[in-house]
TrEMBL record:
Protein family per UniProt: Belongs to the Rieske iron-sulfur protein family.
Entry's localization field: Cell membrane
Protein source organism: Corynebacterium guangdongense
Residues covered by the Rieske domain: 322-388
Gene3D superfamilies: Rieske [2Fe-2S] iron-sulphur domain
Protein name in UniProt: Cytochrome bc1 complex Rieske iron-sulfur subunit
Transmembrane segments: 56-77, 97-118, 166-186
Record membrane topology: Multi-pass membrane protein
Keyword Membrane recorded: yes
Keyword annotations from UniProtKB, A to Z: 2Fe-2S, Cell membrane, Disulfide bond, Electron transport, Iron, Iron-sulfur, Membrane, Metal-binding, Oxidoreductase, Respiratory chain, Transmembrane, Transmembrane helix, Transport
Length: 406
């Protein structure tokens, strides 16, 4: 703070000063020297000024419209997944790009308006300030307020009603564009809904929980089929009628030391083998099972010599079928997929953080950050020779930090 400037003004003297005088005093007290200052539009009603104001207003209007469009698309657009060939597939495909386009346009337009306003209306100024230390005094607070008021008045924003209104609307809507997507991430983990291949929405259920409702669940592999092109009287389109994405697994399908990723398949959705029906429409249900976040299971066939040395978990001695063991594929550390099975060591590996689980010791963690064994699914073989779930998981699936009953 300058030592050459009078600082001992009384409250009456400060109150008697105009805003311009206070602003000038504030610059002096702060050790600021205004070397150059020039108004952008010294002549009133300059046509160029009106054109500049119109340009700012246009950018703000674009931002407002784009933000409203984003909110409308986010709330009302049909976002549900649609397969290729299904009605509404195109609308589903453009949903995410439209969100990106409208949100990006809202943000960019608002930024352009602010930049343009600063360049066109804020007075040109070159100021030099000497740094100082210490707390602010009453005179400093008064003069800083005056400086802010001076900045507001010289920016001419206060008298530009249209721009001010559009700027306020754009700012509010921009905030909604940022905040609105967070609503989709908020979910009550204790709120249950109808049970399906995704469970009932709670963290301790999955597609395998359907077994508790008397649904017979097969262990089925994903064979990767997609919609087929069909040409008929109405033209060419894609259809999934008669197509199966999941097929049931038999014991002979796995070689010793082999592993297969399987998913729950309800008996009513079976469409393979002697139950194949070219008219069946089960593809969508199969995809729901595959996309169930806690559904993937590793079905492992141990070599006979290794199976003889297995250490069973207490209370789960009958969960396996012969040399076949089924463990959840969701790592108990942080929920990554334990996608790797090393047959030589009978280790199940998680590629995310290198946790390792011993398939010969009920999926017990033996290396890495995971601290809980992989949940084991009880399995058996039905009268037709296909693997079925012989019960549900007896402990929650997934990361140990998730809310669990046990």
């Amino acid at each position: 703070m300058s030592n050459n400037v009078k600082k001992d003004y009384t409250d009456r003297e400060l109150a008697a000063m105009s805003n311009e005088e206070l602003a000038r005093l504030g610059t002096e007290l702060d050790g600021v020297t205004v070397a150059y200052r020039k108004d952008r539009w010294p002549i009133e009603n300059d046509p160029a000024e009106k054109r500049a104001a119109t340009g700012v207003a246009i950018w703000l209007a674009i931002s407002v419209v784009a933000a409203i469009a984003f909110l409308g698309i986010y709330i009302f657009w049909p976002w549900e997944f649609k397969m290729l060939g299904d009605e509404g597939h195109l609308l589903h495909t453009v949903y995410t790009p439209l969100l990106g386009l409208t949100s990006g346009l809202a943000i960019i337009s608002l930024g352009m308006a602010v930049v343009l306003y600063v360049k066109k209306f804020i007075p040109e100024e070159i100021s030099v300030q000497r740094r100082h230390d210490g707390p602010s005094e009453e005179i400093d607070r008064r003069t800083v307020t005056a400086l802010l008021n001076d900045a507001w008045s010289t920016s001419t924003l206060g008298r530009r009603t249209t721009i001010k209104g559009l700027l306020g609307a754009a700012g509010v809507l921009f905030g909604l564009v940022v905040i609105a997507p967070l609503g989709g991430a908020i979910k009550n983990p204790w709120r249950a809904r109808e049970m399906d291949y995704h469970g009932d929405g709670t963290l301790w259920t999955s597609g395998w929980t359907l077994q508790e409702q008397g649904v017979k669940l097969y262990l089925a592999r994903d064979i990767g089929t997609i919609a087929e092109k069909h040409t008929g009287e109405t033209g060419t389109h894609y259809t999934t009628q008669g197509i199966s994405r999941l097929v049931r697994v038999r014991p002979e399908d796995l070689a010793a030391g082999g592993m297969e990723t399987v998913f729950p398949l309800a008996e009513g959705d079976v469409n393979d083998g002697d139950r194949y029906d070219p008219e069946a429409v089960v593809y969508e249900n199969h995809m729901h099972s595959i996309h169930g976040p806690r559904n993937p299971v590793m079905l492992i066939r141990l070599r006979s010599a290794d199976a003889d040395s297995v250490i069973e978990r207490e209370g789960q001695e009958d969960f396996h079928y012969g040399d076949y063991y089924a463990f959840s594929k969701i790592c108990t550390h942080i929920g990554c997929p334990t996608s790797l099975y090393e047959a030589q060591t009978n280790r199940i590996l998680c590629p995310c953080h290198q946790s390792q689980f011993d398939a010969l010791q009920y999926g017990k963690p033996v290396f890495g950050p995971a601290a809980r064994a992989l949940p084991q699914l009880p399995v058996t073989v039905d009268e037709e020779g296909y693997f079925v779930a012989n019960g549900n998981f007896v402990e929650p699936i997934g990361a140990a930090f998730w809310e669990r009953k046990s």
